[in-house]
Amino acid sequence: MAFGLTPKHTEEIYLTDLSPEQFLALAIETANQLKWQINYVSETGIIAYTNKGLFSWNADIKILMQYGNTIFITSESAGNEMIDWGKNKKTVNQFLDTFEIAKLSFTPEELTLKHIELEAELPPPEQDYLQLPPQTFKEQIKDFFSMFVPTKEYFITPILVNLNLLVFILMLISGVDIIAPTGEALLSWGANFRPYTLNDQPWRLITNCFLHIGIIHLVMNIFALLYIGALLEPILGKVRFFAAYLLTGLIASITSMCWHELSISAGASGAIFGMYGVFLALLTTSLIEKNTRKALLSSIAFFVVYNLIYGLKGQIDNAAHIGGLFSGILIGYAFLPSIIRFEETGVKSITIGFVSLVVISSCTVIYTMLPNNGITNQEIMNGAINNQTQSNPERSIFFIESDKDRSEYQSIMKDFASIESMALDIYPLDTTVAGKEQALGQIKNRGIYYWNRSLEVLAPLNQLKLPPAIIKQNKLLNEYCLLYIELYNLMYVALEKHSKAYDKQIDELHQKINVKLEQLKAGLPK
C-alpha cells in the first residue's frame, strides 16, 4: 500500500535475454495489449496512462531503461487520493505478467524489426525527456516554493493559497488550536453560521472561504487548490479564475447555510470544488486536446466522486461541496464563449459581469428569504437556559464539536428547563394559618425537590466534551440551583416558625439569584 501526496510503486528488473531495443518494442506491445494510452516513447523508455475509464482508478506509468540492462517500472496514481491501497503495485505486476506472456509471441528478430520501424519517430538523445537529469535537493526545494510565487500565467492561485496560509498563521498567533479550533474561535475569525450570517453579517459568506478547521484541513485544501490552479488558471486567465473562485465560494456558503441551521462552516473546499466544477465543464468540450482531456477528466472526476463519498461520513460540509461543484460547472460553461474568443476583451468583461450579477442577485434573494428563527447574536452568546430569560436550548449547542455530545447536551438542557419550570411553580403561597401546611408542602415537596432534581440532571454534563464557554455556563447553572435551594429552605423555616427574622436573608438571596441570572444572560461568570 503506497502512501503520500501522490502514491506510487516502482519495480526494478534486469535484462538477460533481450537487448534494450527489443525490450522497448516488447514494452510497447505489452502496453497496447493492456489497452494503455501511450503518451511518450523514446530510446530509453515510455510514458503511458492506464486509461480504464472516467470513473475508474487510473495511473501514470513510466518505464525507464538505465545503465544498459536495468529497467525501472513505476506506476503513479493519476487521481488525488493519499493512499492507493496497493493498486500501483498491482498495476506494475500486471505489466510484468503480461510482458512475460507477450514475450512468447515474438522472436528476438521480430522485436528487432519492430524497433527499426519505431526509430524514425523517436526523439534524438539530446531531446529525450526521460534523460533529463534528476533534480537536486536544492532544485526540489526551489521548485516546491515556486508554487507559492505568482507568475504571469500562474498569478491568482498562489495569492489565494498565501491568503489562506496567512489567515491560519494569524489564527495560531492569536491562540487558536492548530489541530481542532473551537467553534468560538472560528466564529470570531469569520466562519459561516446561519444565525450570525443572517443577522447583518453577510460578509461571513466570503470570509469563511479563507478559514480552516485545523492544520490537516488546511494542508488538504492547499494541495487541491495548487493542483487545480496549475491546470485551470492558464486557461481561464487571472480575472475569470478569481471571479470563479469567489462566486463558487459564495454559492457554496449559501448552500451550506440553507442546509445547516446551526452548524459552523469554514474552509476553502466549497470554492475549490467550484474550480473543479469549472474544469469538469471545460473538459467536456473540445477546448483541451483529446488525449490530455481523457486523462484529466478521469483524474478530476475521481477526485470529485471520492471526496463527495468521503464527505458522507459526517463532520464534513458536503452541502458546500455540492453547491460549489454544480455552480462551478454552470460558470465553466458560461465562461466558455469568452475563452474561445480570447482576443475579444469586451466579451470577457461582459461575460464576467453578467455571471457575477446573476450569482450575486440570486444569493441576495436566497439570503433575504432564509429564516433565522428569531435568534439574535446576543441570544446565542447568552446561552442561559431558564424560564425567567425565556431562553432556547438550541442556542448553545453549535459550540459543541461532537454530534453525540451536542445531542446529549441538548437533551439535558431540555430536561433541565422542564424541571426548572416545575421548581419555580410553587407560587402563589398561602401563608395564612389555614394554608400554612399546604404552602410548606409546596416548598419542600415541589420546590426543593425539583431544584435538587435539577442538579442531578445537570451532573452528566461533567462527562461531556464541552467548550469553555458552556462549561462556565454549566457552573453558573449549578450555582443558580444551589441558591434557589438555599432560598427555599430559608422560606420553609421562616414560614414554619412564622417569623420575620429571616426576611433580610431572604432578600439577600433574591439579590444573589438576580445577579446570577445577569451572569447567565451575559454568558460569563463575574
Topology:
Layout (H helix, E strand, L loop, with lengths): L7 E7 L5 H14 L3 E6 L2 E5 L9 E8 L3 E8 L9 H17 L4 H11 L18 H10 L9 H18 L9 H6 L5 H4 L6 H4 L7 H22 L1 H22 L9 H15 L6 H21 L7 H23 L4 H25 L7 H6 L20 H22 L11 H23 L9 H30 L5 H20 L4
Antiparallel strand pairs: 1-5, 2-3, 3-4, 4-5
Helix pairs in contact: 1-2, 1-3, 5-9, 9-10, 9-11, 10-11, 10-13, 10-14, 11-12, 11-13, 13-14, 16-17, 17-18, 18-19
Describe this structure in words.
The chain has helices at 20-33, 87-103, 108-118, 137-146, 156-173, 183-188, 194-197, 204-207, 215-236, 238-259, 269-283, 290-310, 318-340, 345-369, 377-382, 403-424, 436-458, 468-497, 503-522, and strands at 8-14, 37-42, 45-49, 59-66, 70-77. The chain has three domains: 8-132, Alpha-D-Glucose-1,6-Bisphosphate, Chain A, domain 4, CATH 3.30.530.50; 151-369, Rhomboid-like (Rhomboid-like fold, Up-down Bundle); 380-522. By secondary structure, it is an alpha+beta fold. The chain has a five-stranded antiparallel β-sheet. Strand 4 (59-66) and strand 5 (70-77) form a beta hairpin. The protein is elongated, with a radius of gyration of 33 Å.
List keywords for this structure.
3 domains; 526 residues; 19 helices; Rhomboid-like fold; 5-stranded antiparallel sheet; alpha+beta; elongated; Alpha-D-Glucose-1,6-Bisphosphate, Chain A, domain 4
CATH class of the largest domain, named: Mainly Alpha
What overall form do the CA principal axes indicate?
elongated
| Mean pLDDT metric | 83
Tell me the total number of β-strands.
5
Adjacency order of strands in the biggest sheet: 1-5-4-3-2
Distance from N terminus to C terminus (CA atoms, Å) equals 56 Å
CATH topology of the largest domain: Rhomboid-like fold
